[in-house]
Amino acid sequence: MGGVGEDFRKIALVNWDSVCRSKEDGGLHVMRLREFNLLLLDKWCWRMLVDKDGLWYSVLKAHYREEGGSLKRAVG
């Protein structure tokens, strides 16, 4: 006797490359989140180096401490 609970226990195997393809190519256009996150982190690191008068740097400086022009983790 098959029920909803039985369907819930099945594991769906999905090809990640096909999920990440564009909709036009038959995929779901899901981004590769790890790579996307690394790119965003790179962007913010670059921004912190070139725009130390910007709001984002001021927010981080208020949360962490600045030493020798770099942000350091606050102790304590």
Question: Could you characterize the architecture of this molecule?
Answer:
- With 76 residues, this protein is mainly alpha-helical.
- The protein has one domain.
- The protein contains four helices and two strands, in the order ααααββ.
- The protein has a two-stranded antiparallel ribbon with strand order 1-2.
- It starts with a helix and ends with a strand.
- The model has no long low-confidence stretch (mean pLDDT 79).
Shape: elongated
| Rg over alpha carbons | 22 Å
- Count the domains: 1
Intertermini distance = 59 Å
Kindly state the mean pLDDT as a whole number? 79
Helical content (DSSP H or I, runs of 4+): 40-55%
What is the H-and-E element order?
A: HHHHEE
- Largest sheet, described in full? 2 strands, antiparallel
Tell how many strands the DSSP assignment holds: 2
Q: Strand content of the residues, in percent?
A: 5-15%
Q: What spatial order of strands do you see in the largest sheet?
A: 1-2
Features:
mainly alpha; 4 helices
Summarize the structure.
The protein is mostly helical and 76 residues long.
Secondary structure blueprint with pairings:
Elements: H1 4-8, H2 16-20, H3 33-50, H4 55-63, E1 65-67, E2 70-72
Antiparallel strand pairs: 1-2
